[in-house]
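Researcher: I'd like a candidate sequence for this fold, 470 residues long. If you have to choose between options at a position, lean toward the conservative one.
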């Protein structure tokens, strides 16, 4: 028998970004990360995902930490490992479309502060919304990975994926990621999908999924056999549930096969030992809810990401209408269809979810319409794969004319204005970007930072005056 060619599978470790975003409400602090990164740096991971997504907002808002400072510290510690971030296309890390000058500057600063790989996605898979970020990453000599949001529906045929993969390659991506945020991709479907993508593109393929529905590690196995090169995993204490499959399990699964990662299990065990108390404490404090650790088969049934389900429950609770849960779950696919069948991922998941809740509790569909629903219908988030339901669109936007161009084409440069607004707090060039994304939260953080510095300076001056009495 001919010897099979060795093709070690590459692993992206997500514990410093997606895993704690999915399980710990993104509350892991830089302090909690730093003591273990020297060991993590020795594993030989393809990359460590450690920045972007919700980490930026959570650092400023809840942890009162400068996210840029975190990135520089991680860069300092990871001497051999590539650092990866998640970037929401023209939304950057926020929820609105930003002008190109802000997107370009954010990419430039992310890379100059230490990021190697930028994973860029758009919630509608409208690739026009990825262009600016991809070009900027190319220009800064970073690795531009384009992520396609995986979803199900009439429009999402194998030909759709094959075609869009080709267009992504033409756009200048260095690799392609299938981002299965809800854990909808089942093992045999994954093999089919990877094969189709391989026909459309020669880019390396990275598969990102969540364990939510319980199939994820089998999905990785079939995807790797079909030619997928990179998989995203989390070290075991922060794996499974709404997080990723466990790193050690996948490493062991491929041992002695052509896909053997060659990673050292003893080293991985030491890393797991470090994170075990983080898990234990989070379970004790209630930060980690045991509910999210089990198999949630409803995600397969309703094709709704786990995070979105918990949002729905709290929205209904607020309205005192928890008994409408099932009706809302049934309304979601209908709203999604009316809205051109988009993938359900931030921010489209919130928009569709909120609209479904309103449709049910108002007792009339589209009687109450939040401004984000209107923005989608006006084309202001971009183009959906399928057309909108024309009747619903008419009811929502009336006589207004929807746009068909790339939404950011209508935005004038924004940096000068942001610079002006945050000038009084600015201590580093990157501050304007924190401010651009989260103005109120950043302002509060800047004020907190100043107060801390005054306190420290005051204490130092105090000490000095005691040591050297005048
Ligand atoms: Co994810």
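Model: Candidate sequence:
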């Amino acid at each position: 028998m001919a010897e099979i060619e060795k093709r070690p599978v590459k692993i992206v470790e997500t514990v410093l970004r997606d895993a704690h975003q999915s399980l710990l409400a993104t509350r892991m602090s830089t302090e909690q990360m730093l003591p273990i990164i020297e060991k993590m740096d020795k594993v030989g991971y393809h990359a460590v995902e450690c920045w972007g997504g919700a980490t930026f907002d959570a650092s400023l808002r809840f942890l009162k930490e400068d996210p840029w400072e975190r990135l520089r510290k991680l860069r300092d510690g990871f001497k051999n490992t590539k650092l990866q971030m998640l970037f929401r296309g023209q939304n950057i890390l926020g929820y609105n479309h930003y002008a190109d000058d802000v997107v370009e500057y954010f990419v430039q600063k992310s890379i100059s502060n230490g990021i190697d790989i930028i994973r860029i996605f758009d919630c509608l898979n409208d690739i026009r919304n990825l262009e600016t970020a991809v070009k900027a990453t190319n220009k800064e000599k970073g690795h531009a990975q384009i992520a396609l949001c995986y979803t199900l529906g009439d429009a999402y045929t194998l030909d759709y994926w094959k075609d869009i993969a080709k267009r992504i390659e033409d756009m200048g991506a260095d690799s392609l990621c299938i981002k299965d945020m809800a854990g909808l991709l089942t093992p045999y479907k994954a093999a089919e999908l990877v094969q189709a993508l391989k026909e459309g593109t020669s880019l390396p393929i990275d598969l990102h999924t969540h364990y939510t529905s319980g199939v994820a590690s089998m999905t990785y196995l079939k995807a790797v056999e079909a030619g997928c090169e990179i998989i995203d995993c989390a070290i075991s204490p922060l794996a499974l549930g709404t997080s990723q499959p466990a790193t050690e399990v996948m490493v062991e699964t491929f041992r002695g096969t052509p896909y053997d990662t060659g990673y050292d299990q003893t080293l991985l065990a030491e890393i797991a030992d470090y994170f075990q108390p983080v898990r234990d404490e989070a379970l004790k404090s209630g930060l980690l809810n045991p509910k999210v650790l089990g198999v949630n088969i409803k995600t397969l049934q309703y094709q709704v990401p786990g995070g979105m389900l918990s949002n729905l429950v709290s929205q209904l609770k607020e309205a005192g209408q928890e008994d409408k849960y099932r009706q809302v779950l049934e309304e979601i696919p209908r709203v999604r269809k009316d809205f051109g069948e988009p993938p359900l991922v931030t921010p489209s998941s919130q928009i569709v979810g909120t609209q479904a809740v309103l449709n049910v509790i108002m007792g009339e569909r589209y009687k109450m319409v939040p401004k984000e629903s209107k923005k989608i219908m006006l084309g202001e988030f971009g183009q959906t794969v399928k057309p909108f339901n024309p009747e619903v669109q008419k009811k929502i936007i009336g006589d207004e004319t929807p746009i068909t161009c790339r939404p950011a084409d209508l935005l004038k440069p924004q940096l000068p204005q942001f610079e002006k607004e945050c000038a009084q707090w600015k201590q580093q060039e990157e501050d304007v970007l924190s401010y651009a994304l989260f103005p109120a939260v950043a302002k509060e953080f800047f004020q907190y930072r100043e107060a801390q510095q005054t306190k420290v300076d005051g204490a130092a001056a105090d000490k000095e005056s005691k040591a050297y009495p005048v």
